[in-house]
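Input:
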Amino acid sequence: MTTKSSTWLKALAREGSGAIITPVLGIIFGFAIAALFIWQQGKDPVQAYQELFLGAFGDLDSFTFTLLRFIPLAFTGLAVTLAYRGGVFNIGAEGQLYVAALASTWVGVSMPGLPAFIHLPLALLAGMAAGALFAFIPGYLKATRDFNEILITILMNYVGIYLVGLAVNNFLMEAGQTAPQSALVARSAWLPVIIPGTFLHAGLILVFIFALLIYYILWHTTWGYEIRSVGTNREAARYGGIKVNLVMILTMTASGALASFAGSSEILGVQHRLLENFLVGYGYDAIAVALLGGLHPFGTLLAALFFGALRNGANSMQISVGVPVSIVYIIQALAVMSIIGATAARKVYLQAWFKGVRANGSHPGRN
Amino acid sequence: MAAILAAISTLDFLIASLRMTTPLLLAAIGDIYAERTGVLNIGLESMMLIGAFGSFILAYYSGNAYTGLLAAIILGLIMGLLHAFFTVTLRCDQVITAVGENILALGITSTLYRTIFGVVTKQPESPGLPQLSIPFLGKAPILGPLLFDHTLLTYIALLMVPITYVILYRTTWGLKIRAVGEHPRAADTVGINVYLIRYVCIVISGILASLGGASLTVGGLRYFLDNMTAGRGFIAFAAVIFGRYNPIGAFIATLLFGITDAFQLRMQAMGIPIPHHIFLMLPYVVTLAALIFLAGPSFVPRAQGIPYVRDER
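Output:
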């Protein structure tokens, strides 16, 4: 408890109170504008938001479902955070989690009879390898041939999504079925449930382990120092003797491995079989999550919880009040845009005012 | 195999390819202006989606497809101003801004569509842009139907290629655009208004991308689907890089994608015993392969992605 709160305090001190206040204001702004949309539909925004909140946190069931949404968002958010700290943009978490789910399902389905302590790690590792490979390609092209990693990862997202479609319609299709879905993953590869009577699986524990690990690596190891140096100023890092290309490739690959857990844990922990479009938009939301979380692993967890609650609560809101689920995209987007807008405005106007450090934008040091 | 060859060697196939190229070409040509001034516009996707939705709604209510185009132009202008304000004035990260815009466009269009039409069993249809056959030329064999019998948007897209080429390489304005993208500080020193050039070019990009979106609804399907742009904004962005920020290069790149898209549709319709997901994947794989193996060392405007800060004195 004491160690945890002290890390929080340190994080707060490092990032400044703006890291807390700006996101909160951004979220409030997002809700306020979305309220106008709801009101314009002739619905009561207060009632809608009440349903949203109850749907997300109302009872143990709702809360576990929020946590189940939180897990993949946290993994992809952490993946984006790590990559961003190393100066590469990973917009490919979506594709990475899809191929990871594909690999995990394949191991889970095709090797029945293995003991659980081998089968489960093997399935997770297969997913990790697939996700890592999918991120390695843009990372390698970026580092060695200066390809735009944003573009490559976005295009690869579509490839990953269609690969899953291809798999569940062909070689992974359940025997004797016409519906595009894989067979059930063998029980020995299921992630264990951690609270009996709910669906909450061990992926939740993995999330916290990885968040701590990333925090530790980034701020307490040489490798983390190198990642952050490359992310802050590539030229200076190179001058300082850091193998920039290698660090970039490794960061991107690690980021893909992290994103893989979003897909693997969803399959092995929740759905137990692969379906087309089984987890839509989590890779793109990850960017918003990472940003809202101040590009810090612990902040990312908080932001992922918020997004998970939004996603889960929006369903109840749609059912009971009739407000479309897509309204949460508006809330998310407005929160993101007001955060970057407010942060940038503070930099541009306040710093110019004090004639202190010249504003340089929030540019992560690309090119 | 013979059936496939027969299917793609028809005139219909070439016309379909050109139709699939139109939205991409419009977005890509617009993006060249923005990229040449050094501002990344990965928000093309949002601009296309907003344009597709706005033109559909206005055409639906007015009963006139051209009103839809007007709506697309105005919405594209607004989206362009938004992107310019964030990236040029506020100097925000150009990628994150675009990600925000893309989510925003998806949210707004999906939400409004449901608000306006509710849950419908039959897709509401808007009027579509008529085919404009050009007198004399439209009657020519082969070339007539291929080049001179299209909707207004296809003509605009095709005309924008030479126009943009001339503007970029033969006018002072083009010189200014390129100067701003290569060395904004030097451009500023010789009295070019860096901010103004960037604003104008991003707005042009927004308008053309929005028209590209309109070509999907009023210029194509005549109805609207959630997230119907399906990554075309990103493909257009890829085409610009692949085409080395040059309108002719971008045209070739988008045409490549349009042909692949028309090909995959044709193959799906023919019921070839190859899983249709392979065809769905094809345009993206072809773009990726083309980028990696054909594009070679990338040419990038030197100031790309870097916000310009004018010295305050």
